[in-house]
Amino acid sequence: MSFDYDLFVIGGGSGGVRAARLAASEAGASVGLAEEYRMGGTCVIRGCVPKKLMVFASEFRSAMQDARAYGWEVTTGTFDWPAFRAKLDAELDRLENIYRTNLQKAGVEIFDTRATLADAHTVRLADGTTKTARHILIATGGRPYVPDFPGCEHTITSNEVFQFEALPKRILIVGGGYIACEFACILNGLGVEVTQYYRGAQILRGFDEEARGHIAGAMRDSGIDLRLGTIVQRIEKVEDRLWVKSTDGHDAVYDQVLYATGRTPNSDGLGLAEAGVRLKDNGAVEVDAYSQTSVPSIFAVGDVTDRINLTPVAIREGAAFVETVFKGNPTRPDHTLVPGAVFTQPEFGTVGLTEEEARALGPIEVYATAFRPMQTSFAGREDRVLMKLIVCADTRKVLGCHIVADHAGEMIQLAGIAIKMGATKEAFARTVAVHPTMAEELVTMKAPVRTA
Ligand code: NDP
To answer: Is the Cβ–Cβ distance between 91 and 53 less than 8 Å?
Structure first.
């Protein structure tokens, strides 16, 4: 049977673009790709990239305060959001173009339209035309989820933050995960008055508890009104502002209410179930270790599969799919010991097991230190850095590393290599310190603070 393409990819985000490009350029496959919005997906257009640029923008306020403490004569002034947004928009256009050009250079045929599944080997484009392919890759990502409650129509999500015409004066952020915490810090840094509600007892559920407490403390110290165990009951529009009634009796008025309460896989309306592709209860596409769905010709990668929802993981899944299907080299994407960062201020870098997870598995030693780092301490700030290693008492292997510090994302990438290689605590200790740095504490911690 002959097909129009060897591969048709639905979705032009991190996973889909990588798979399409590699299949075409490295395996010589004929590839079509459909994207209904902008090339680059969540990461480039409304996620990691614009978020990180906003992180950079937001850090200058405290950097300028520190500069004054170091003897510079600087005045802080106010942040010009429209000027920043214009630059941000131009940068995203530039990046989108690079993605598009790279796909074209690799020989991928791009369709700027929505595509759905017609059957196991056919996609239907929005204009009704169909394309057949030996393999189809679903890489449609996810979208923000907002719970249903009275007034939920007045809320915004992280998607809309990048489209603000002007920064709000007061914002309520709901949620305690990555996005809520990152935007609370960003907007606080940009001079917005930030209140954050989280329904549970501590933000960043699932991460190391000590680190969670440390970050929550730092966020409060920086001026964020973080309220735990708090749920929004209803929102009403009062003139052009939003009145929020909550369970803690703290009713207040905000300019915007941002919900960052998780993300939902983009699997509806794609014809997946009709084609026989099995979905999980939350709508995620069910895949095996090779990203193959219940229909053998259809694979899925990235957030639509709801495994580890991070860009670099989606990219690895896309690359492993190409190895498996187009290069005769069955490859499972490795979802173990994935380092990650939450871009709060201070940043949080983490890899491996939390203290709580490790303790449940066997005897451990915990090495931890919290200290005022040289740079900000000199400037008179009280900020404290947290460095923590979880060590298996039997094998001596470092099972987890958790860092709360400026540039923790950079540090954890490197610590992640050692931990992925199975480094022991003694290997860390044999490594000579780089002095004076914050990270040197990782190799100089002598005695465990606790064993369990
Ligand atoms: P998360 O799953 O990280 O957090 C969702 C938060 O919303 C949790 O605190 C959750 O509470 C809370 N929540 C869920 N439902 C409700 C509800 N009905 N009412 C009130 N609160 C609710 O999702 P995010 O949206 O923050 O991020 C999505 C994913 O995107 C992340 O998991 C991550 O994979 C990825 N991401 C990664 C980033 C990075 O690498 N730096 C940055 C941004 C996103 P509870 O804990 O109680 O369930």
So the answer is: yes
Say yes or no: 273 and 233 in one domain. no
**Is the distance from the beta carbon of residue 309 to the nearest atom of ligand 1 less than 6 Å?**
yes
- Alpha carbon distance, N-terminus to C-terminus of the chain: 61
Say yes or no: 159 and 193 in one domain.
Answer: yes
Domain total for the chain? 3
Task: Say yes or no: CB of residue 200 within 6 Å of ligand 1.
Answer: yes
- Ligand 1 geometric centre to CA of 70 (Å): 38
Same domain, 318 and 347: no
**68 and 122, same domain (yes or no):** yes
Ligand 1 within 6 A of CB of 176 = yes
**427 is in which domain, residue-wise?**
340-451
Angle at 306 between CA 354 and CA 256, to 5 degrees: 85
Count of beta carbons in the 10 Å neighbourhood of residue 292: 18
pTM: predicted TM-score of the whole model, two decimal places: 0.97
Are 78 and 160 contained in the same domain?
A: no
**Residue 217 burial (CB count, 10 A):** 14
**134 inside domain:** yes
The DSSP annotation for 304-331 comes to GG-SS--HHHHHHHHHHHHHHHHSS---
Distance CA 355, CA 451 (A): 10
- Which residue from 155, 199, 259 has its CB within 8 A of the most atoms of ligand 1, so it is best to mutate? 199
Indicate whether 268 and 256 sit together in one domain.
no
**d(C-alpha 352, C-alpha 354), whole Å:** 7
Name the token pair of 81. 């959001």
Rounded to whole angstroms, the Cα distance separating 251 from 215 reads: 25
Ranges of residues in the chain with a pLDDT under 70 are: none
Chain Cα centroid distance, residue 269: 25
Which stretches within 328-383 are classed as H helix?
Answer: 355-361, 374-378
Taking the CA of residue 144 as reference, the ligand 1 atom at the shortest distance is 25
Residues 6+ apart with CB under 8 A from 318: 14, 15, 16, 17, 18, 19, 22, 137, 139, 301, 302
Residue 435 annotated in active site: yes
- Running DSSP on this structure, what letter comes out for residue 286? P
Any idea what the CATH number is for the domain that residue 131 is in?
3.50.50.60
In a domain, 335, yes or no: no
331 domain residue, yes or no: no
pLDDT tens digits, one per residue of 87-137 = 999 999 999 999 999 999 999 999 999 999 999 999 999 999 999 999 999
